[in-house]
Amino acid sequence: MDEGSIAPGAAAGGPISHTIFRLARIHSLLAGRLLREVGLHPSQELLLMALWDGGPRRQTDLGAELGTDSAGTTRIVQRLEEAGYVRRRPDPADRRATLVETTPAGAALREHVERIWTHLEELTVGDMTPAEQGSALAGLLRLERNVLATDPCQELGRRVGKRGLTRE
Amino acid sequence: MDEGSIAPGAAAGGPISHTIFRLARIHSLLAGRLLREVGLHPSQELLLMALWDGGPRRQTDLGAELGTDSAGTTRIVQRLEEAGYVRRRPDPADRRATLVETTPAGAALREHVERIWTHLEELTVGDMTPAEQGSALAGLLRLERNVLATDPCQELGRRVGKRGLTRE
DNA sequence: CTAATTTGCTGTCCAAGACAGGTAAGCGAC
DNA sequence: GTCGCTTACCTGTCTTGGACAGCAAATTAG
Fold first, then answer.
1. CB pair distance less than 8 Å for B16 and A146
2. Is residue A128 in some structural domain?
3. Is B156 among the domain residues?
4. What are the tens digits of pLDDT across the range A36-79?
5. For residue A14, pLDDT beyond 60
6. What is the pLDDT of residues A94-128, one digit of tens each?
7. Is the CB of B92 under 7 A from strand C?
8. Does the distance separating the beta carbons of B40 and A14 come in below 8 Å?
9. B6: which residues sit within 8 A by CB, 6+ positions away?
10. Structural domain total, chain A
11. Residue B44 is part of a domain; what is its CATH number?
């Protein structure tokens, strides 16, 4: 073994978690590189994708779906709005809320972005057979469900306090 | 289905990639929360772990293993050094290079960190049977190999130019 | 010896997470 | 109606981290 950074060994403390970390890192690196082609950052792209998929929505709902807090959502939407890909419109039903929807320019991006996702998916699955892909996907979903069950999202908006190692 | 953000549907463009993204996000969220207990951020902790696992190493090698560039590696090492968890020492074999090694304080952290990893792993695998865990891990490793084969790491240090959607 | 390369460091710009406020709108109790 | 609480969004600040440019010292090639 010792093929690059695969399964370093100290991963003994948590092989699956560790592998998730490594996979996520390089996968996101690869995705970020592909996404650059359209000038979007991963989070921005995920938000757009959520919009294409679910239609106009309030920022709060978008944030909850993406796992970002309201401040982060605001900024992501702002950048997309400045770029002309989304539009904000007051919610007629609740004047506190803002509906976010894609503009034609945003919609025009969709095809391109989906082509990139398809490409990313091809690179990711490589030469796996459909059966292997299905089993891998099932494993991922299962892990996702487990982690979700521990409720990190439920607590997402909560104040937790205590920072990590800071500059100090 | 439709349990929270699981399999939103537009993920049709790349179900596995999309799931990796979502899983990575909440998993890292959960890990970050657990890691806070020792005052470390995920990247810092991964670097420490790599050190425990592979012994003293040069910064370049550490960076390559973690997928960060030299600037990022410098900063992470600096913070760990300021916190007293690692030490830097000139490489006797190449006086340009710096060897990074853990201090006793860093080593003392190991047990605690590994306990956290074990806890994280338990939460992540949930009630999966050992067989299911093995199959999930195999899937993850397979995906990792595929993505690595596309070489994002090989190009890691390269200049790629072109930024994403920026402020204006 | 000189010239090119490698290694690490610094600084800048940027995205994004976490948190602490602040404002405006809605809603319930009285 | 008014008072008070909650919700939805925004802003500012701090921090981590990615990407990049430039620099100094050491190494290596010629």
1. no
2. no
3. no
4. 888 889 899 999 999 998 999 999 999 988 888 899 999 999 99
5. yes
6. 999 999 999 999 999 998 888 888 888 998 898 99
7. no
8. no
9. A141, A144, A145, A148, B22
10. 1
11. 1.10.10.10
